[in-house]
Amino acid sequence: MKVARFTGLGSKVRSSCIVGTLLLGALVGVATLPNTAALADGPDRANIRVMTQNTYVGSDYQAIVDAKTPAEFAAAVTLTYQQILASDPKARAAAVAREIVRNRPDLVALQEADILRTGAAPATNVQSDQLKALLAALRAQGQPYQPVAIVPELDAEYPSTLGFDVRISARNVILARVGRVRVSNLQAQTFAVNQVFQSAVGSITFRNGWTSVDAVVGGRAFRFVTTHLESSPPFTTQLAQARDLVASAANTRLPVVFAGDFNTTANDPQNPTFPTYQFLLDSGFVDAWAKKNPGNPGFTCCQAPDLRNPVSALITRIDLVLFRGGFDVADVHRVGDSQSDRTPSGLWPSDHAGVVATLRLPDRGHGG
């Protein structure tokens, strides 16, 4: 689970999930599918198009954060479950699929592509599966993508007031466009430093991490990484995770692309999360949005928790595409932030806008 509102931050604060009695541990059980895609010919061979999208589970989890007693906590679990269902994850997944089809990214980084389950522990009755719904919508629109990395972070399961447990399985995912990309060398890691929250039912540890693949397009190789950094204070945790990310995921001679929900406010140097963004730049990474759109704030977060705000409420930029190693930026733009992107019932596809960047690949031989 992921979100809480904290006074004075000016934006929503995110965590990957609330730890229940069932844990997946340090990113064990990483799932991959074999990639048999052949490289495409044509004028786009010198470019790579990437997208990052936090798909949003459908609740900000504020009731869980606010609960003061175990009874209040169980009621909050019920409310959270109802909020997720009311957000219509399947329709929103179809809206995200439309964004992908329009932009045809070669690689897609997804955060919060979660599964909602109910039942007795361990709960197994699937109520929504955002990744499954997204893949089905892509197939229906004639654009097959395949997951090349599905990284479970943690399971969160607690009793509700409805007579059953509610379970959230948080996942970050990398998708590859069939027929365009070859991938290898899947890696995944949990950050060494994670946040602990004292809830009404005991300590809850937030665990975040990263996953990567080495990709080849047009005969040129690079590493593609997605992550979802911690967001709640103290922000030293987030900064420690960013240091871990650079030291581990970026430990390669290949050019590197980071794409994800970094929870660092790139557009506001006064924000307490800005040191994380500055650290990434100081580590040699270039912000694709800032390079192509200087002076444009490019807000990506956040719509109302129920996604029904009539006018876009994006006020901060925390979803980033960063690169190191010889790339140039041909184009970068947001998706999912226009009225026409909403579902038929008027929901925004996510509380985040997505970011699509077209990068010119380094010359052959650059970076190994």
UniProtKB/TrEMBL annotation:
Superkingdom of origin: Bacteria
Keyword Hydrolase assigned: yes
GO terms (BP aspect): double-strand break repair
Molecular-function GO term, any one: single-stranded DNA binding
GO cellular component, one term: cytoplasm
Reported cofactor(s): Mg(2+); Mn(2+)
Pfam families linked to this entry: Exo_endo_phos
Residues covered by the Endonuclease/exonuclease/phosphatase domain: 88-352
Keyword Hydrolase: yes
Keyword terms: DNA damage, DNA repair, Endonuclease, Exonuclease, Hydrolase, Magnesium, Metal-binding, Nuclease
Protein name listed in UniProt: Metal-dependent hydrolase, endonuclease/exonuclease/phosphatase family
Organism of this sequence: Parafrankia irregularis
